[in-house]
Amino acid sequence: MSVSSELVHRGYSFVCLSCGHGWEAEFAIRLATDDYGRLHATYYVAERRVPSPLSDARCPACESHHVRILRPGRVDSARVRHED
Asked: In angstroms, rounded to a whole number, what is the distance separating the alpha carbons of residues 75 and 84?
């Protein structure tokens, strides 16, 4: 069914708007284009298929779905400024 596919790696930063927990995660993303030209993305963490963090992000601390996604590196940079 797939005409072409490629594997890309992306990192995201997250912050839970319910409990304030912040974390970062790296994803391997298999991008495939089907016979009709539609793009399909499948997300993996440590070779395990996971839901898309862009549509189904969940806080690992409190399980809330009220999560904001940030550019990679935002959580660590906020921690460094806070610790000074």
From this structure: 15
Q: Tell me the two tokens of residue 59.
A: 């806080």
pLDDT digits (tens, 9 = 90+) for 46-77: 999 999 999 989 999 999 999 999 888 766 55
pTM score of the predicted model: 0.72
**Structural contact between residues 61 and 21, judged by C-beta atoms closer than 8 angstroms:** yes
Measured between alpha carbons, how far is 63 from 46 in angstroms, rounded to an integer? 21
How far is it, in rounded angstroms, from Cα 83 to Cα 69?
Answer: 22
Query: If you write DSSP's letter for every residue of 35-55 in order, what string do you get?
Result: TTS-EEEEEEETTEEE--TTT
Q: What does DSSP say about strands 2-16 and 22-34: parallel, antiparallel, or unpaired?
A: antiparallel
pLDDT in tens, 19-55: 999 999 999 999 999 889 999 999 999 999 999 999 9
Strand partners, 67: 16
